[in-house]
Write a structure and sequence with these properties.
single chain, alpha+beta, Alpha-Beta Plaits, seven-stranded antiparallel beta sheet, four-stranded mixed beta sheet, 4 helices, about 35% strand
């Protein structure tokens, strides 16, 4: 049995970065399924469960805003960190004044979404794990506003507010509830962590403000799209 949940999330800004934009960030028009999964996992996650996003409701009008921020041009290489952990003399410091760059970000202003999702038990589930147990844990935490870490809308600096939509609560209205269909193009679905973090894409469309998320293919089947022809 799948226990479905609905979570209303919103914030001041969001940036669900398109992977083809390497330097100057540009957000997708709406939240990606992987970002929605990250928000759910911030509230409740265990190795025994895997979140599956079914639908994403776009509640507010899609409004872009451009900001410029100071960033650094490089990051510390993972190989250097491993070398330092092995006891080798490696410099892990960065001098911000020497690597600072000003970059532009095209982000979303005042976004709000409704996430429809459920979870399935994984092979890590033990005798004490049940769907009802983890459902009740998520509901209790969401009602109290508890989370393992602050959920965010794409980038960590864009914190997300959230509240649980109970079965008796009316659904928030969408700015696009009267629009038949809006093509959003190729969108990142998620990463296949069992296959070297391979990105999976799907052709996204929004109908009456709702993005229906296709199911990920079973292990060994043909993926949604591995190239993400952008």
């Amino acid at each position: 049995m799948a226990f479905g949940i609905r979570l209303h999330v919103w914030g001041d800004y969001a940036c669900f970065t398109r992977p083809e934009m390497k330097v100057e960030r540009m957000s997708y028009e709406a939240m990606t399924p992987s970002a929605a999964r990250g928000i759910l996992e911030a509230v409740h996650w265990r190795p025994a469960i895997r979140w599956v996003v079914d639908r994403i409701h776009v509640l507010h009008e899609i409004v872009y805003e451009t900001v410029r921020r100071n960033e650094i041009e490089n990051k510390i290489a993972a190989g250097s960190v491993k070398a330092a952990m092995a006891g080798k003399p490696v410099a892990l410091s960065q001098v911000v004044t020497e690597e600072r760059q000003q970059r532009s970000t095209l982000l979303l202003r005042r976004p709000a979404y409704l996430i429809d999702a459920h979870f399935v038990l994984t092979e890590e589930a033990g005798p004490g794990d049940s769907a009802e147990k983890h459902y009740n844990m998520f509901v209790r935490r969401a009602r109290l506003g508890q989370c393992f870490h602050r959920p965010y809308l794409g980038c960590r600096e864009f914190a997300a507010q959230f509240r649980l939509i109970e079965a008796w609560d009316p659904l928030p209205s969408s700015f696009y509830q009267d629009q038949e269909a809006v093509d959003l193009g190729w969108m990142l679905h998620d990463l296949d962590f069992q296959d070297g973090m391979t990105p999976l894409f799907f052709q996204a469309s929004m109908r009456r403000g709702i993005i229906h998320v296709p199911s990920l293919p079973p292990r060994g089947a043909m993926p949604l799209d591995r190239t993400g022809a952008l």
